[in-house]
Amino acid sequence: MPNAPTHAPHAPHRILVSALAASALLLVPAAFAAPADSEMATAAQSAKNQSWLYAGSDIPRDAAWQFGELPNGVRYAVRNNGVPPGQVSIRVRMDVGSLFETDKERGFAHLLEHLSFRGSEHIPDGEAKRIWQRFGVTFGSDSNAQTTPTQTVYQLDLPSATGANLDESMKLLAGMIREPRISDAAVAAERGVVLSELRESDGPQRRIADATNAHLFAGQLLGDRAPIGTPASLEGARASAVAAFHKRWYRPDRTVVVIVGDGDPTEFARLIAKYYGDWRGDGPAPRQPDFGNPDPKAAVVKEIVEANQPAALTLAMIRPWIKRVDTVENTRRLYLEFIALALVNRRLENRARTGGSYLVATVEQEYISRSADITLTQIVPLGDWKDALADVRGVIADAVTTAPSQADIDREANEIEAFLMKELENARNEPGARLADDLVRAVDINEVVSTPQGQVDMFRAIRASATPEVMLATSKAVFRGDATRVVLTSPKATEGGEKALLAALAAPATIRDDRLTSVAADFTQLPSLGTPGTLVASAPLPGLRAERIEFSNGVTALVSNNRVEPGKVRVNVRFGTGNRSVAADAPNLLWTGDYALVASGVGPWGQNELDQLTNGRQIQLGFSIDDDAFELTAESKPADLSDQLKLMAGKLAHPRWDKAPVERLRVGFLTGYDLNDATPNAVLDRHLRGWLSGNDARWSPPDRAAIEALTPEAFREFWEPRLASGPIEVQLFGDLQGVDYTTLLAETFGALSPRAPIVPSSGQRVQFAAHTVAPEISFHRGEKGQAAAMTAWPTGGGLASPRDARGLDILAAIFNDRLFDRLRAEQGASYGPVVDSYWPTGFEGSGGYLLVGSLLAPRDIDRFYAIARDIAADLVANPVSADELARNAGPLREQVARASTGNVYWMFLLEGATRDPRVAANALTIQDDISAVTAADIQRLARAYLKPDRQWSMAILPQGMSLADASALGKAAVGGR
């Protein structure tokens, strides 16, 4: 089933509304109001200040937003929003990014972002992070920043905001932006961090991306202005040059401050005026850079050869970026473009499903960095790339030659409208952080924001005009460009090279009519699920607004009827025993379920029929594997819940076993197989969980032979008994007012035949990796300057010790904070060290670990292990201070408090609650358990688990390098300092 777009095309007028938002207009505070000669002048100035985002637009305003502009040019947007309760989200957007840099300044915008977060001239280095931790802020998620080609955005999500900590946070953030600490020492420290980030992102994927951008955007700044910069420009960065960059671009007239949260917008505006109102730009405003236009005379084709990378094609039609006023007509154009692309994407996917010449092909249209309007087609060929390119061009040729049917247009429009209606129904639950991010994005791409109802109304009017003739004209415009570019990535030089690529592009496109044949699919075609079940028990779950239901066939359900998300019902069907259904040393096909199990169909329906069944409706079918259950998941709505449950029950009772998805999965795994050791990150993603579990087969990846041996018959043999056996628990959480959910459950899951019991396998426990004295070694085939190191200790698991699980979370946070300070902030050896505590509940007494790891340069491997040993030994030997405990427990407690306002949180915590009362009991005490953890608990847990004789370590090095070689590099680096 195709997914509806995650947001409206190009996020036009992003749906930004909250039932809690204030609607009154906000006047500029009197202390900062521009002097006026008359009431009329005052009103005119106020109107200008109130509508700067909507200047020239005829799109109805979202009145929940209140806008203003200070006399110095700082613009702002504020609104009230209570999701999650108590939180205030702050964004400061600076109109400067990597496209504003000179050749010698490459990377300076990003480097400056790093420097700003160290603190300001008024705050000691690193102290801002600690202050925000005391406010419950998690560094890296609640406080962060991002630099793009066109903007730098500073982000702060302040939980449990009070007048005092909001004022202090605004002061800190304004100081960092206005007067960052730009000293030679600070630049040297952050240069190391950014160079680590650059090193850790280096590899074939980045080289391909850089070469592709240089080709697509030849003659434009975007072609060679990656925000990360270059080693040469970063090594040459000095405090004076970075300060000059800051002086030039960090000015009040280039600043937008956005505040959304559980508070008074008038107070938000007052704080903006307080901390930004006296800011003055230094010198004349700089000239806006010319980002350039696509060059039609630049080379059309490019071949990029990267060993061990799969073949891939990029076909681009490029047009100049045009600055437009965002109007209703502009919105119409955007939506019509989106529908045109959706029509082509569905045809491309249909061809891939039926065994085409490519594994996947998609088209998208983007307005990129105020530089280009581009239609981009990405293709992963199967076999000869020329066949794949010809087939995709043929589908595009059909789209620009023959008008689509109205039925095809309506199919795509239904998907968009269903998504917009879903957003409208859930508008009151829109998190403030998302609202803030969306407004910043609107500013960056020169668009406005509108209400959910306004968005629905606009789209309904637009879709009425989407006739076949209009869509044909739109398709022609979307697939026409001032410049055409093609990039072929290949593991080895292709026969004929770029000449062959140019010839393939020049050949006339042969029309491929891959339009979907209309299918007649409805839920009456589903075979009977059985006689509706008998309700045998129904009772509230103590302490929770949830009801436990049990049917005569053994199916249990946990139902929470609430209005947390109006119009939405979340469904989670847990069946069988998940990872526990497989022995630790037995071959398995768990790795095939994620895609192929759903794609192989239900009853009489294959993928196309499922698309028809779900078109324009909120009916989904997701699949995942938990330690103690398999899960079918969906987000639905009350009107669709009956059919949603029929579909999910039908998957268990009447699974279909189409062969094509299994073959597509097999080919996809083989196509990407050589990427598995291309970088340290790739090695970790593939192997880490298997290593930590002592090479348990449930988490160890399949090798090439196992992938090649996959057949539809073997797939069915593995999965069919698992779909048919073991207990079923259904979770229904959401807006169930007026829904007879007991009857719906009785008619679906309650009607299923009693399930066959599962004989417990030997996989009820998880072994931890064997202790190592020296780190084990694994290798990657990427850059010689890249490595990774990790060390871990076994802990526990299950439901018996919930307070220890929470204590280990805090211990991990403290360990991470110290590792960050020493490995990154002090020494610049790593961009993102991480410490994680994992305590699974699906394996009683086993499966847990505390993991410490980082991407590094090989020379820093020994330093990493030395620092990790020091931190672990200190945590064992000495109790943490009250401040350190509070700074790390507080953010965890705030994360729980925010998450606990939503259904997703409670559904996750209450998995299995209908069968084990400890699940609900533990879920209700998490906040108390975190609050109860003491310094003595942290030391007790460190002594219990951080034992050198149980420790396991692994280093991932470049192919051919030994640990001794890495150590020698480290000693040489120290000697050279």
Automatic annotation (TrEMBL):
Signal peptide range: 1-33
Peptidase M16 C-terminal domain residues: 241-322, 710-887
Regions crossing the membrane: none
Stored Pfam families: Peptidase_M16, Peptidase_M16_C
Necessary cofactors: Zn(2+)
Record-given protein name: Insulinase family protein
Keyword Signal: yes
Organism: Sphingopyxis jiangsuensis
Family under the similarity heading: Belongs to the peptidase M16 family.
Residues in Peptidase M16 N-terminal domain copies: 87-211
Keyword Nucleus: no
Keywords carried by this UniProt record: Hydrolase, Metalloprotease, Protease, Signal
Top-rank taxon: Bacteria
